[in-house]
Amino acid sequence: MVGYDPKAEDRNISNLEVAVAGSVSGLVTRVLISPLDVIKIRFQLQIERLSLSDPNAKYHGILQAGRQILQEEGPTAFWKGHIPAQLLSIGYGAVQFLSFEVLTELVHRASVRDARDFYVHFLCGGLSACVATLTVHPVDVLRTRFAAQGEPRVYKTLRDAVVTMYRSEGPLVFYKGLNPTLIAIFPYAGFQFSIYSSLKRAYEWALPAEGKKNGNFKNLLCGSGAGIISKTLTYPLDLFKKRLQVGGFEQARASFGQVRSYKGLLDCAGQVLREEGAQGCFKGLSPSLLKAALSTGLVFFWYELFCNLFHHMRKADS
């Protein structure tokens, strides 16, 4: 069970083990879904319509984009920015799951509400994600810059990127897109945790025998469902965040088509709606939903698997 469960007092794992489980779940998942993440970011940053009918559009479909990136940049392009992405996943997973466990336990100890309530999981999930985001946002900006650049590369190494960005754009560059990130991540993560728990309870109610036997499959399936629903509900804010994060990086985007400059979240949203229409707010939704299903399902799958492993190891030692 993700989050504090007063009915599972025998599941005794330390905060360190919770953080390790969160880190490892993020690390393994990131390796597997990185290609989809690169395609999603390319779609989000493209001004032109994602359609064959637009002759200026560089990308217009998942398979076409995958083939073109492979032909032009080679297979390693699908793991561009992988080192900062892994640092992001490891740090984010540890802070988020640890914060969530601590917050849900605090709610239970304070006797405010049942720690397993939908609203408690939504609030604690959102807050834990905000804490994790504040911790690792500079790495997220680096990851986005690496994934967004074409050939020739502007940044050769992680150190080169940090030094160049700091010198040319100042220290605040590492927090570009923070406002829409926090605005988007709170409901996104809140829905992830609350919908995941709700889907698990629904699964166990509908299939009581299967729910007890196939725990790993249940976690994977419910995590995937939670990822799809939460991503769809909050997707436009994720797109605005990506557009803002590559501000000041226009020279490396020239080979991909048109570029735009934005003064802030509201300006970004306004320009996208005026120039690209409402559908522009959902560019890259298809690979993003595929990525959300896989990543959220795998993160919860691996997290619960490692938590249970730590729990059984403690029982074996006692």
TrEMBL record:
Protein origin, superkingdom: Eukaryota
Family annotation (SUPFAM superfamilies): Mitochondrial carrier (SSF103506)
Keyword Transcription regulation attributed: no
Assigned protein family: Belongs to the mitochondrial carrier (TC 2.A.29) family.
Intervals holding Solcar repeats: 13-106, 116-202, 214-309
Source organism of this protein record: Rangifer tarandus platyrhynchus
Subcellular compartments: Membrane
Pfam families linked to this entry: Mito_carr (PF00153)
Keywords per UniProt: Membrane, Repeat, Transmembrane, Transport
Protein name per the record: Solute carrier family 25 (Mitochondrial thiamine pyrophosphate carrier), member 19
Annotated membrane topology: Multi-pass membrane protein
Keyword Membrane: yes
